[in-house]
Amino acid sequence: MKDYVPHSDSDLIGWSNEYFGYLTPHAAAWAVDAANVTALQSKFGIFNSYYNQYHNPETHTPMNRERKDEAKDAYIADLRTFNQAYLIHNPLLTDADRIALGLTVPKSGQSSASDPDTYPVIKRFVIVGAGWIDAHFQDKNEDHSTAKPADIHGAELKWGLYNAEETLPTNADELPYSDFSTRTPFRFKLPASAHAKILCVATRWENNRGVKGPWAPNIEKTVVE
Q1: What pTM value is reported for the model?
Q2: How confident is residue 87, by pLDDT bands cut at 50, 70 and 90?
Q3: What is the Cα Rg of the chain in Å?
Q4: Is residue 210 a contact partner of residue 80, using CB atoms and an 8 Å limit?
Q5: How far is residue 40's CA from residue 201's CA, in Å, rounded to a whole number?
Q6: Which residues contact 163 (CB under 8 A, 6 or more apart)?
Q7: What value does the mean pLDDT of the chain take?
């Protein structure tokens, strides 16, 4: 099934404006909570703001590009989750509604891609600056290639910071924070207060339909320098 999310920044912004233009007045009729729509619009607004900052000659900096890309990844992750939860399988929507929203409508008899049955593993952590740590991940079945499996959009990384004397988490549910990355490595930008703490990270794949795979069985750990 063709991915409905545009890849280029400008195409995604144009697509999103049309998407929200149709979603907002119809959400109540589809029993979609207005607060959830507002939260998704907020994520889009953050991405759009960083996009404008990056394309402003006065603020065209590598830092703003990185912020734009991170905001885009966060927005797309929430967008896929929202659509999967409230729109794609909602019986109150017609196929005409889904087309108007810019979503892909499967042809009759078309089989969908399988749910993720593998997971990403962190091969190494690389310290690139004070509090900046790159997590290099790849599929568990790959020895060298960093290519994602077919139909995979990216990796969810749940993480937390812990003092050495604390009991460290043993499963992803215990980790308080979540990020999403469509490419490796993912860069953690941690505050000065994180120095000497232990960074714990759990990973799983999410496919292009917003379906999440199993968590990697091991929580990876490194000391923040």
Answers
A1: 0.56
A2: very high
A3: 19
A4: yes
A5: 25
A6: 197, 198
A7: 89
